[in-house]
Amino acid sequence: MSLLAQADGSTALSDTGFTDNLVLDKYLVPFGDWMEQAFKWVAAELGWLLSAIKWPFSTLNEFLVRDIMENVSWFWIAVAFFVIGSLARNIKVGVFAGIGIGACGFLGDGFWQATIETIGFVGVAVFLCVIIGVPVGVACGRFDAVWSGVRPVLDAMQVIHAFAYLIPFIFLFGLGNVGATIVTMFFALPPVVRLTNLGIRQVPADVVEASRAYGAPEWRVLVDVQLPLSRAAIMTGINQTLLLAMSMLVIAAIMGATGLGSELFQAVSRQEVFLGAQAGLAFYLVAVVFDRISQPEGTEGGLLRRVRQAWAHRRDPELLVPDSARAAPIDDEAPQVQGEIAPLTVAERRSMTVAGAGGLVAFVSLFLTWNSGAGFLSAYGRTLDEYRPGESFNGLSASGGSWFGFVLLALALVVVAAAVTTMVAPGRGPRWFTADGATIASLAMLVMMAVYLLAAPSDLVEGYSRGIGPWLALVGALIAAAGSVVWIRLAPHAPDRPLRARIGWGRVAAAGFVVIVFGVGAFSVWSFDERTRLIISTDTQAQLDDMAARAEANPEQSGVIQSQMAAILAAAEPDPRIITDGVNRDGPGLGIWVFVAGLAGAAAALPAAGVFGRHEHRQWQWSAITAGIGVGAACVGFGWIFTHVRSGETTAEGTYLSGVGSFLALAGGLTLAATAAGVLKEFRRAKVYADDVESETSTGSHGQDDRQREREVVT
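The structure corresponding to this sequence follows.
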C-alpha cells in the first residue's frame, strides 16, 4: 500500500502501517469543516434569505394559533373538526374528530393550550409540505429531468436522521417553533412528493393521449385527468407526511417547540407519571384525529401500525398506495424483432485507435517527471515539500501528481479499455466501455490536466521546476479527446426508446444552477492553513544559525544555547492563519478555472437539452461532452482534497485543511454530469436487421456499404 501512504520523508506512518486503525487519524477528510464554513457563510451573507424562509412559518403559526385558535372557544374548535372530518371523509369520522379534539379540553386549560399549539405546529408543517410537495411531485411526474434531479435530494432527506440536521437548523433558524417547524417539514416532505409523482405516472397513457386528441390544453389534461385519477396516491402521500410530522413532535421539543411534544419531553426528563399520562393521552387523541381525517379510502390498521408503516417505508412510500389505485401493467403488443449489433466501420476503427493511443500516452506520462526541486500542490500543505533539492517526482508521487495522477491513471485506463473492448466485441462489453464512456473520460482528463497546469505553485517553494510529465499528459488527453469526439460522431448508437420531443428546460436550469455553484465555490475557501509560522527577520535568522553552530561546536553549552534560541523564537511574532479562496493569488487559483470549465459545460448542456434542435444522436453526443466536462471539474476538486488528505501536515500548532470551495467543485461537477445521465443511459450500440442487409445488397450499393448501413440502423 505504499502508493497510498504519505511518502517522500513524511513521518506520518513511521510507527504504523496503512492497515492499522491509527492511520485513520492521519488521513482526515474535513467534511465537518466544510459544512461549518458553509453554514457560517450562509448565516453571515444570506441573512435576508433566511428571514424570507422563516417568514411563512412564523406568520402562519402566529395567525393560526395566536390570532384564531386562542381567541375561539374549545367548543367551536371541536365543532370545526366535526365539519372538517365530515367533509373530508364521512359523518362517522367527523363525529369522532369532534369528540377526540374536545376531549383534550377536559384535561385542563394548560393541556388545551398545548393541544392547539400542537395543532398549529403540525397544521403549518403539513400545509407547507402540501403547498411545496404536490407541485414538485406533479413536475416530477410530468418531466423525467425534474425527477432525475429531485430524486437524489429526496433520498438524502430520507436517509439522514433528523438528529443529524438539528444543529444546522438551530444554527441557521434558532430555537423555538419556527426552527422546529422547518425541521419537521424537511423531514416529512418526501412522501408527498414521491407519491404525487407515482400517481401522475400511473395515470394510463391512453387516457392522457385521448384527452389531448380531443384538443385539451396541457393544464386541462393535468387538472381534469391526471390529478383526479391520482387522488388516491396523493392522499396517501399527505397521510404519510402527516404521520411523520406527528412523530417529530418530541424531537421538535428538543429544539424548543411548545405543545404536547414539549409536555412529553418534560415528563420524561422529570420522570413525572402524571404529566406523561396527561400529555400522552392528548397526543394520542390529536394524532388519531389527524390520521382518520387524512386516511385514504381502502386503507386499514390502527394508528400505531400505520405510524410504524410510515417509518418502515420512508424510503419506498410508493408501496403504501392501495392496490386499487395502481395501474395495471401493459403487455407488449408484439415481441421484439432480433437483430445483429452494427459492425465497426473503417473510420470508426481509426478514431477509436487514436483515442486509445492518447490514453496510452497519458498512462506513460505518469511515470515521467512531473516536478523537481520541490513539491507542487502538496507544498501548500506540507512544509517538507517546500524545498527538495536534487529530488524529482512522478505523477503518482505524493509530492508530484499525487491524486491528480491516480485519477488520470483511472481515466486513461477507461479510454484504452473502451477502445480495446469495442474493437474486439462491439456493443457487448461493459456499458461505459463505449464511445460515450471514452468521450467522458478523455474530456475529463483534458479538463483536469489543463486546470492542473494552470495552477500556481506555492510562494514558499524554492528551486521548483515543472517536468515533462504533466505536459505529455495534456497532449495525451488532447489526442484522446480528439479521437473520442470523432468516434462518438461516427458510432452507430440509438436510444432504447425515443427521447422526448421537447426541450429539456430542466436540464438547462440545472446547468445554470451548477454554474452558480461553481461561482460560489471559486470565491469560497479552498484552504485553511492553521499551522503556526513565525515571522523571523534575516538578522534574527542569522543569529539563530550562529547559535546553532556554537551549540554543535560546544556540546557542554548546548543546553544554555538552546534555551536562548527558544526565548528568541518565543518572542517572534506568529503569522496569522492563512485562508485562500479559489481565485486568491496566495493559493493555486484552481477555483477560477473550474468556474471557466463550468461555463463550458453549461454551454454544452444547451444542445444536449435540444435547445438548438432535437436530433437524438446529436443530443447524445453533446450529453457525453457535458458529462465529460462535469467529471473533469469534479476531478479537480477531488484531486485537491485528497492530495492534502494524503500529504497534509498536522502539527501540535495546527493543521492544513482543504476548504468548502473544493467540495463545491466536486459536487457541482458531479451534478453537471448527472444532468446528462438521463440521455446517456438510453443509448446502446444500434442493431441492423436482415431485411436491411438484403435490401442494401439488392440495390448494388457495394461501394457505400459502411455509410449505407449507418443510415439504416434502427433501435
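The CA atoms of residues 399 and 579 lie 22 Å apart.
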